[in-house]
Amino acid sequence: MLVVDDDEDLRRTVTMVLAEEGYRVMEAANGAEALTRLHDGPLPDVILLDLMMPVMNGEQFRRAQSADPLLAAVPVVVMTAAGSRAVEPIAALGPTRVLHKPVGLEPLLEAVAEVASGHGRDGHAK
User: Fold this and answer.
1) Is the pTM of this model over 0.90?
2) Spatial separation of the C-alpha atoms in residues 112 and 59, rounded to whole Å
C-alpha cells in the first residue's frame, strides 16, 4: 500500500491501521513524493490518494501515474473531503474507489481488501 496525503496525522494513522492489519505500507506527503516512491519500488497493490495536496496534487499525480506504463495499472482509492459537486471531476481521474473523509475504519479496510484482492494480490506481508 502507498498512502499519499499531506495531512501527517491522517497519513500516519492510516499507515498504522493498515500495518496492524498485516499490510506493507509506504507513505508520501504529496504526489511528487509518491511518484519517487513508486519508481524506487516495489510497486504497491493499492494507492490511497488524497486530492488536495501541495507540490503535486492528486489530479496531477493521477495524470502522471496514468501516463507511465510501469505505474498505470496500480489501482487507486481516492480519499477526499470534497463534497458531492466533485463527483464528476473525481470520476474523471479514474479511481478504482472513492472514500469520503472522514473515512471510517471499516469502509477503509473493506475498500483496501476489495481493491487489493481485485488486483490479483492480497497486499498482506507474507
Assistant:
1) no
2) 20
Do 48 and 24 contact (CB within 8 A), yes or no?
Answer: no
Answer whether 26's CB lies under 8 Å from 44's CB: yes
Q: Which three cell numbers stand for residue 45?
A: 497493490
Cβ–Cβ under 8 Å, residues 80 and 98: yes
The DSSP result for 45-105, as a single string, is S-EEEES--SSS-HHHHHHHHHH-TTTTTS-EEEEE---GGGHHHHHHT--SEEEESSPPH
Tens-binned pLDDT, residue by residue, of the chain (126 aa)? 999 999 999 999 999 999 999 999 999 999 999 999 999 989 999 999 998 889 998 889 999 999 999 999 999 998 887 655 555 566 667 677 788 888 888 999 999 999 998 754 444 432
Q: How many CB atoms lie within 10 A of CB 106?
A: 8
